[in-house]
Write a structure and sequence with these properties.
This protein is an alpha/beta fold and 325 residues long. It has helices spanning 16-28, 42-52, 58-78, 93-101, 115-128, 149-154, 173-187, 203-209, 216-231, 291-300, and strands at residues 9-11, 83-87, 107-112, 133-134, 136-138, 159-163, 192-198, 241-248, 253-260, 264-268, 271-275, 280-287, 303-310, 316-323. The protein is 38% helix and 25% strand. It binds S-adenosylmethionine.
Length: 325
């Protein structure tokens, strides 16, 4: 039987020491925080998949329905023989919709910080799309990332970045501009970026989306503590914390925190941290944008807003950005 393989797999997954350093520097900060890029181990990604299926979390079903509908428009914009570079791929759900829509996509490179899920998703695309050359890069996408030379040389079609799921919302508005600007060399001067961006809406709906009744978002948020307890030298007990998520109207963002249930001293490696009862550890921001507000950020980052779409309820937007000049 033919065994599927990847054209390449670049492994720059952060080492355990990097995870520990990040946790320590977050707990030394005021207010305390943990980096959301470490949410997605196998368990975290599994929980995220469950969140995506809840009634409350409109993001995934709205974006996938839009991608299905936009297929012909996207194919016309991107042209034949594309190289698709996906940022924060996670699962292979959305890329299938894009690859199905595009005309003879030539190459696909998912980039993600979590090695296991990335390898699995890339292999499943390699199996189901034998005409597409698939290679993967396990790395922090905020670092400078380069495609292998032969990927660029062999490619005749457009380079298309794909950044779904409103993961851009994890950045502050200023950091989103810096990140998008830093992506331009990866996309090349004739490249484009297809990006999913969540919109500002009714506060109750936003709060519900991050506090689902089944408790998957709570488990997802707490999972970072389980990861710390499992992988690092620590006496931290995840049961001493609870999930807290709310819309911060002034900042236009959902904030996720872990609230300490008691006064406690937590040891990580050689260091100890005092955490007061009710003290919050900030774990994630999900900024919500207006359509014009996002286009302004993209333009400041050196892109042209070539096309943008919203769903009928104005919950979510998808933007096709091209490189300015
Ligand atoms: C919110 S999930 C989105 C998954 C999927 N793209 C979607 O649209 O549903 C974010 C994904 O980005 C990855 N990720 C988060 N921060 C990252 C970083 N700094 N560098 C690379 N990947 C990152 C996570 O591992 C995860 O797979």
């Amino acid at each position: 039987m033919h065994k599927p393989s990847l054209a390449f797999f670049v492994d720059l997954e952060p080492a355990l020491e990097d995870f520990q350093d990040s946790v320590i520097s977050g707990l030394l900060a005021t207010p305390k925080n943990l980096a959301c890029k470490f949410f997605y181990d196998d368990a975290g990604l599994d929980l995220f998949g469950k969140i995506c299926e809840t009634e409350e979390y409109y993001v995934t079903r709205t974006e996938t329905a839009m991608l299905r509908e936009l297929g012909p428009a996207l194919a016309a914009l991107a042209g034949p023989g594309c190289t698709v570079v996906e940022l924060g791929a996670g699962s292979d759900l959305k890329i299938r919709l894009l690859l199905d829509a595009l005309e003879r996509p030539a190459q696909y490179v998912p980039i993600d910080i979590s090695q296991g899920p990335l390898r699995k998703a890339a292999l499943s695309i390699a199996v189901d799309y034998p005409a597409v050359r698939v290679g993967a890069i396990c790395a922090d996408f905020t670092a400078k990332i380069e495609l292998p030379d032969d990927m660029i040389a062999e490619n005749t079609g457009q380079r298309l970045g794909f950044f779904p799921g409103s993961t851009i919302g994890n950045f502050s508005r200023e950091d989103a501009k810096t990140f998008l600007s830093g992506l331009r060399p990866l996309l090349g001067p004739k490249g484009a970026l297809l990006i999913g961006v969540d919109l500002q809406k009714d506060t109750a709906r936003l709060n519900a989306a991050y506090n689902d009744a089944a408790g998957y978002t709570a488990a997802f948020n707490l999972n970072i503590l389980h990861r710390i307890a499992r992988d690092l030298d620590t006496d931290l007990d995840p049961d001493d914390f609870e999930h807290c998520a709310f819309y911060n109207e002034a900042q236009g963002r959902i904030e996720m925190h872990l609230r300490s249930l008691r006064n406690q001293r937590v040891r990580i490696g050689e260091r100890a941290f005092d955490i007061a009862e009710s003290e919050m550890i900030h774990t994630e921001n999900s900024h919500k944008f207006t359509l014009d507000g996002f286009v302004e950020i993209a333009e400041a980052a050196g892109y042209v807003g070539t096309a943008r779409w919203t769903d009928a309820e104005n919950l979510f937007s998808i933007h096709y950005l091209t490189i300015a000049g």
